[in-house]
Design brief:
alpha+beta; single chain; 2 domains; six-stranded antiparallel sheet; 39% strand; Rossmann fold; elongated; Tumour Suppressor Smad4
Length: 255
C-alpha cells in the first residue's frame, strides 16, 4: 500500500494520550489533513468518531486499542508499526443513510456506521409502522424502539437487544425490534443490503420518538427513511490474523 504519511489521533483518555506521545516521538508523522493513513488510538467509540470526522478524506484508518472496548481496534504495539500497516488487510464498509422528517416539518440527514435506531422519548411505548421497499411489513409495532444495523454494527447495540450477528460478506442488514410488546412473537428480520426501510411514527404527539444515527440524534420524528449508502466507502485496516470478518464469526461462538 506504500503509506508515506502517517497521522496519529487519540481519544482523551490518559492511556491514549500517552500512547500518542510515544508514537509521535518514534515515527515521522503528518497532520490528518495531509496523511494517507490515520492511526486512531482509543476504543470503538473513538474509532467511530474518527471515521465520521475524516469520512470525506477517503483514506484508510488503523485503530489501536487504548480504550474500554476494541472490536474495531487492533492490539496496541509500538514496535514495527510501518510494517504492520503495510501487511494489514483492508475492510471496506458502507454506512447507512438516515433521512428524517420531524413532526414540526424539518428535514435532516445523517450517516451511521453501526446502526440507525428509533427510541421512545416518553414513558409510553412507541407505535411504529414499518415499510420495506414501500411494502408494509409491520402495520403497528408497539415497542421501546427498533433499529437497522450494518454487519459491522451487528455486534454492537443490535446484539445487545438480541439481534443477529451478520458476517461482513453476507450482503444483509438486520432489522431488530427493541423490547417489542406487539407483535409479541416478532423478533426482527434479515434484509438484503439493497433494502430501503421506512418507519412511520403513529400517535407521534402522544408517543414521541427520536432517531439516532451513531452520534446524531433527531427528536420528535414523524418519518425515518434508512438505506445503505453505496456511494460512501470507509476503509479500515486490520492485522491479517485478527481481521474484522474473523472477529464477527468468532463472536457467534462466544459463551
Amino acid at each position: 500500500m506504500g503509506f508515506k504519511n502517517i497521522a496519529f489521533v487519540a481519544a482523551d483518555s490518559q492511556a491514549a494520550r500517552e500512547a500518542l506521545a510515544k508514537l509521535e516521538d518514534r515515527y515521522k508523522h503528518a497532520r490528518p489533513e495531509e496523511a494517507d493513513v490515520i492511526v486512531a488510538l482509543g476504543g470503538d467509540g473513538f474509532m467511530l468518531e474518527t471515521l465520521h470526522r475524516y469520512i470525506d478524506r477517503k483514506i484508510p484508518i488503523y485503530g489501536m486499542q487504548q480504550g474500554s472496548i476494541g472490536f474495531l481496534m487492533n492490539s496496541y504495539d509500538e514496535e514495527g508499526l510501518e510494517e504492520r500497516l503495510e501487511a494489514a488487510d483492508e475492510v471496506a464498509l458502507h454506512p447507512l443513510r438516515m433521512r428524517v422528517d420531524t413532526v414540526g416539518g424539518e428535514r435532516s440527514e445523517a450517516l451511521a456506521i453501526n446502526e440507525v435506531s428509533l427510541l421512545r422519548e416518553a414513558r409510553q411505548a412507541a407505535k411504529i409502522r414499518i415499510r420495506v421497499d414501500e411494502v408494509v411489513r409491520v402495520d403497528e409495532l408497539i415497542c421501546d424502539g427498533v433499529l437497522v444495523a450494518t454487519p459491522a454494527g451487528s455486534t454492537a447495540y443490535n446484539l445487545s437487544v438480541n439481534g443477529p450477528i451478520l458476517p461482513l460478506g453476507a450482503g444483509l442488514l438486520a432489522l431488530t425490534p427493541i423490547s417489542a410488546f406487539r407483535p409479541r412473537r416478532w423478533r426482527g428480520a434479515l434484509l438484503p443490503q439493497s433494502a430501503s426501510v421506512t418507519f412511520e411514527i403513529l400517535e407521534s404527539a402522544k408517543r414521541p420518538v427520536s432517531a439516532v444515527a451513531d452520534f446524531t440524534e433527531v427528536r420528535d420524528v414523524a418519518k425515518v427513511h434508512v438505506f445503505q449508502e453505496r456511494n460512501v466507502v470507509l476503509t479500515l485496516l486490520f492485522h491479517p490474523e485478527h481481521n474484522l470478518e474473523e472477529r464477527i464469526v468468532k463472536e457467534q461462538f462466544m459463551p
